[in-house]
Amino acid sequence: MKKHRYVVQRPFLRFDHRITDIDHLADDLRRSSLANIIANDILSERPPSVIGVYGAWGSGKSYLLSQVIRELLERNRKGGKQQAIVCAFNPWQYEMEQNLAAGLIKTLANIESQFPDHQQEKGYQLHNPSLGGKTTHRLIASYLIDLLIEVSPLVVPGGGVAAAAGKAIRSATTTFQQTKDQRAQPLLIDEVKGKMAELVEAILDSAHEADATKQKQYRLVIFIDDLDRCSPEQMVRMFEWLKVHMLVEGCTYVLALDHIAAARAIVGRYREYLGEDQDLAYGLRYLEKLIEVEYELGIARDVEQMAIRQVHYPHKVPYRRVSEMAQQLRGGDFPGVQHIDQLLSLRSLLVPRTMLKIVNRFKRVMEFLREHPLANQLPESYPFWVLFLIAMYYRLNPDHLDDFVRGRGTIYELMKNPGSVQSGQWGNGPFREFCQYADRFGASAGSSLQILRVEHLLVLASIVRESTFDGRL
User: Fold this and answer.
1) Which ranges carry the KAP NTPase domain (predicted)?
2) Cys-Cys with 400: which of 56, 79, 270, 396 at CB 3.0–4.6 Å?
């Protein structure tokens, strides 16, 4: 560490987990058993070629992949006969290059730099098996990257290699050179899979040769995260490369993605070939052919507790619910605290990343108000309304929040006068959930908890957005 560098005692809370961050993992969402199951699949006698981990953005897919990686490396450390060589690939980092497959090969070429030495809190280290300094896999990877770059222009956006060949054949203006390229195309494409098999075999052979016991069996495991953050075109093209050219012996892929977003991308890519069959079912059937075993992440348990622990880390706190945290931050009980648990039970708020953002922002706003004289001018129920506005801020259209703090809109009307807006006008998704909550709130709270005046709501909304306030009521 250079002397002029600022020493960070505790890193700022991160909302985007990297799968390579395998130190100090906590099983707050109780998914360690699922991580063990996936690790068992990978190291079984008949391992699947592709495993899918499905879930919406923010559902904890990346964190689960880190748990699986750590479990595999733990088993390596314990000297099991079945050993995993782990490769973590983030295609999002290579999207600007317009060739995700080549990015994957570049990552494999440098696999020895991944998980070389992870010091654990228990005093031992987790790392990939050694390749003994062999460079054969790098030479093969270099050739394969050149091959992929040469082949890629032949894979046009219309729908894969086969579609590209079909369009070339049907072209009325095909020249002799185009015909020659078309004949060469299958040879190049066939060579990709052969070289991929050589690359995997070279990595496994190097690990075996570096093993002093010569008793262990090795399997390459490639974890692909954030593929659904890439453009639909790049995502589907990566599916095509995997399905046709990159599934080889000795290698398992673990893909974490939003399968609904992936299905939409697949339908969009093949739209001109589907005719009237353009629903999600086609995209989901496509994924079924590629992914042999899938696990879909549902609503996680103890999401609130996870978020509370994360925002207070490394300090331990005695409470498990945000309602308890709110009382602690407020310095005691307050009107509206009894409505917090029901608010945070809304399905759309139980996404781990969403809950983490809500709790973190709530803590920051409450700490700001605790030190600001403005808090003395607000009604005692302001902590509840702070949390409600933050929940709206993270889950709803900004216009809905803007309407509410100005004393208008469906949610405001339902809180003031339950049943005043027909359920047919509540829309769908998170907005409907908030409308249902507002209707129940208006009916149950009655006169015991009134909505804040518009001037108070506008002030709190400003603090929620900016975490500060330099004006006055």
Assistant:
1) 33-297
2) 396
Residue 187 has pLDDT above 70, yes or no: no
Amino acid at 58: G
3-state SS, residue 260? helix
Asked whether the bond before 318 is cis by omega within 30 degrees of 0, the reply is no
Give which of 449, 411, 414 is closest to 430, Cα–Cα: 411
At 41, the amino acid letter reads D
Nearest to 262 by CA among 48, 50, 72, 111: 50
pLDDT of residue 171: 40
CA–CA separation, 148 vs 241, rounded Å?
A: 10
Contact 196, 253 (CB under 8 A): no
* Candidate from 71-85, 149-163, 369-383, 397-411 with smallest mean pLDDT: 149-163
Mean pLDDT of 422-447: 93
Among residues 283, 301, 431, the alpha carbon closest in space to that of 29 is found at 301
Range 462-471, long-range pairs (CB < 8 A, 24+ positions)? 463/365, 463/368, 463/369, 463/386, 464/361, 464/365, 464/386, 464/389, 464/390, 464/393, 465/393, 467/361, 467/364, 467/365, 467/368, 468/368, 469/368, 469/372, 469/374
Tokens of 38: 């996936």
Tell me the pLDDT tens digit for each residue of 225-235: 989 889 999 99
Q: What is the DSSP string of 329-383?
A: HHTS--TTGGGHHHHTT-GGG-SHHHHHHHHHHHHHHHHHHHTSGGGGGS-TTHH
Question: Domain locations in the chain?
Answer: 32-296, 303-466
Can you read off the two tokens belonging to residue 394?
A: 């993270």
**What band does 170 get if pLDDT is binned at 50, 70 and 90?**
very low
The whole-angstrom separation of Cα 261 and Cα 267 is: 10
Tokens of 467: 């975490």
Q: Which pTM was predicted?
A: 0.84
Alpha-carbon gap, residue 307 to 272, rounded angstroms: 45
**CB atoms closer than 10 angstroms to residue 350:** 17
- CA gap 361, 386 in Å, rounded: 10
Q: Give the span between the Cα atoms of 182 and 166, in whole angstroms.
A: 10
pLDDT at 3: 58
